[in-house]
Prior knowledge:
By secondary structure, the protein is of the alpha+beta class. The chain has one domain (9-106). It has helices at residues 18-23, 47-56, and strands spanning 9-15, 38-44, 68-74, 87-94, 101-105. It is globular, with a radius of gyration of 14 Å.
Amino acid sequence: MKKIDTARIYFITSVYGPKRAISGFQKTCQECNKYGCTRCWGWWPTLKEARESVKCNDCDMHETDFEYLVIESISPYMLAAARDTYSKEWYRWSGNSDTGKWKAIKEPEWSKSIIGYGIG
């Protein structure tokens, strides 16, 4: 069995983004007015494994509709996302649903004050 270092874990979360969430069928989601609805896909023990999941679009994290994806690096304990060790990597879907892929981007302006996508 693989030993997992829990000093840091990596959550992957799909995010609709504000424009798509407000104009699309996701209007019922209360958070959509703020930054868009989200779906956390779980956590990975290493950044390398998380990035590989993004590259392969494991489990179809785009789901034909999610516009953004974020990998969050979080250390253990309460409010870990508020510590200096917290970081985010952002991706945006490029292309159509069948042949597109996630491309690395700078963090969107609308998301800069939001932390803890993966833990709610």
